[in-house]
Structure formats: C-alpha cells, structure tokens
Amino acid sequence: MASLFSSRVFRRSLLALVVLLCLAVGEFWLYAANNLARHMHEQTFGGAALADFCASSEIGGFPFRLRLNCSQFSAPLRAGQTQILAKADEARGEASIFAPNHIVLTLSSPLSLQKPDGSALAKLRHDGMTLDVAWSSHGLDEAQLDASALDWRPEAPEAGIAFNLQKLNVRLKPLGDSLHVDVVGDGLTAPMLQSVLQKSDLSRFSFSGQIAPAPRASEDWRAAVETWRGKSGAVTIEKLDWRTGDFSFSLDGSLALDEAHRPAGRLNVAAKGAGPILARMGVPVSAAQAQNLISALLGKAQGNPQAKPQAQPEGGDSLALPLILDKGRIYLGPLRLPATMAPLY
C-alpha cells in the first residue's frame, strides 16, 4: 500500500514538474517574443521602425525559436528629392529566444522599386537577400545586408542602367556619435559600363567611410540633413576602390555641405590603366606627360616656381590628382572643370 502511495506521489510530482517546466518555457518564450516585438517597433531606419515595413506581422516559432512572418514588405528609400518604395511580397525572420535583439530577415524575390504613386522604377531579382539587424540598449547596434546574384532591370529612365552583381554586402555600424559604412560588391557586369571601359572583365568595388555625426531619425529628411549640416556634419571616405581587369580607380577624402547645400571638400583621386579612357576624353595618350604638366602647375599655384613635380604613379597611363569642390565649382588639380555642383535640397 505504501509503495502504491509513493508511486502516485512520484507521478504527481513528476507531472507537476513537467507542467511547471512547460509554464517556465512558455513564459520565457513570451518574454523573448515581447522583447523582439519591442525592438521591431523602435525607430531605427530614418524615423521608421522595422515593423512599419510590414502590412501585417506575426511572431511564432514556439517553443525553441522566434519566427517572424512579414507580409507585403515595403521600405521607403530616398534618392535625391525622390521617395522610392522598395517592395517584396514577404519577408521571413528568425531569431533565438536567447537573443531576441538580433533578427535575420529573408526577403522574397523580386524586390520592386516604385514611386509613391505606384509607377514602376525597376525590379531587382536575386537568389538570396537577407537583412541582419541587431539592437543594443542604446538603439541600433549593427545592420547588415547580404545579397547574391542580383539582376537590376530598370523600368524608367531615372532608375539608371541595367547591371548584374554576383555578391553584395552592406554593413552599418554606429560608433559613438558617428556611423561607419562598409560596402563590398563583387562580379559586377553592365553593358553600358563595359562599352565605356571597352572591357568585358568582371568588376569589384569596395567602399569604407564614416558619417559624423550619425544621422538622426526623422521623417523630414531635409530637416534632418540641415540639422546634421549645422553640427559640422561630414562624410569621410576612407577608401573607395574600383577594379576591372587592368583598370583601377581609388578615391579618399572628406566632404561636407556648404551654406548653399552643395557638396564641398577635397578628394584624392588615383587611376591606373586609364590610358584608353583618357584618350577618349581628349587627354593625351601619354597620361604621365599630362601628370607632369599638372604637377608643375600645382607647384606654381602653391607659390613655388622651383617646386619639382610630385612622384608619379607607375605606368604611362596613371593619374593621381586632387578633386576639389568649392562653392559649386569643381577643380581637377589646378584645372577648373566646366561642370558645377547643384544644391542637394
């Protein structure tokens, strides 16, 4: 009789333990799901929350994962003074219940770009596109976009040129009061670009830079940019590099906005293997000779007629010159170009 009683007590205790464990797991999952929902509603992208990009969203995945279903994904983008909507039929996200502040969204293909009135701009087809977002207690901690086999098909002239890109990675990382940006693209082909360069090689490009101070979230982008300019805002280009075949182009420097809202600053430009391109632009085929002439002019412009030309890059079709933007005027070395810079807003 005693053994039967002990067996019943054991079974009841075991059942109570299982129920308590299930309740604990359920409570923990709900706590994690609520945390994810809170992060999803934080203003992160230009005054908008990630949840704002979904016509409807639902968090599931109980009990071991957090899964997000986002229908009719629509993210507003800004190109100059034009607002663009990037739309996908759906986005699916996944996060760990132990890290609800970190979600990976997978977007369906194609991604359609439209004007607010619904008119088509372009379609971007891909074999995989993920948006990896992590938050900290202070807001956005890091955002990363990875995409493969991109096929850009313009449907309006303002959408640019058609191109294919094998891989793309974009990373945004707040650092103190600044925002660090890294972009890497590999395997770029574009008929128009190949025609200009007269090369069929795949291109690779990379960009690394910093925006300081970091742009603040605002639905009025003009007001946000004006506030940023008033705080001596600047864009530092640590390195922009473009390579295709034996042609390479690099650029670094810093840009800001002047009182008339025009880009202003100094950029250091270098190019190698640019002989054929320079020739089509009317620059002497022996670009090294043009480089020597410009360097001599630079020396005189600095008030030193005896100044020796700067050391030249190797090769007869290489250039290394400063590009200066000042009060709407554009200078390549000491030469003023006929083009001018218009106000951005």
Protein traits:
single chain, elongated, 5 helices, about 350 residues, two-stranded antiparallel sheet, alpha+beta, 6-stranded antiparallel β-barrel
Write the layout of secondary structure elements.
Elements: H1 2-40, E1 43-45, E2 48-49, E3 56-60, E4 65-79, E5 82-96, E6 99-107, E7 111-114, E8 120-125, E9 128-136, E10 139-154, E11 163-175, E12 178-189, H2 191-197, E13 203-212, H3 221-230, E14 234-244, E15 247-257, E16 263-272, H4 275-280, H5 287-301, E17 319-326, E18 329-332, E19 335-340
Antiparallel strand pairs: 1-2, 3-4, 4-5, 5-6, 5-7, 6-9, 7-8, 8-10, 9-10, 10-11, 11-12, 12-13, 13-14, 14-15, 15-16, 16-17, 17-18, 18-19
Across the major sheet, the strand order is 5-6-9-10-8-7
Order of helices and strands: HEEEEEEEEEEEEHEHEEEHHEEE
Q: How large is the radius of gyration?
A: 27 Å
**Helix run count:** 5
> Structural class, judged by helices and strands?
alpha+beta
How many strand units?
19
Could you give the distance between the termini? 89 Å
Largest beta-sheet details: 6 strands, antiparallel, barrel
Oligomer state equals single chain
Low-confidence stretches at least 5 residues in length (pLDDT < 50)? 296-315
Shape from CA axes? elongated
Percent helix range: 10-25%
> What is the residue-averaged pLDDT?
82
Strand content: over 45%
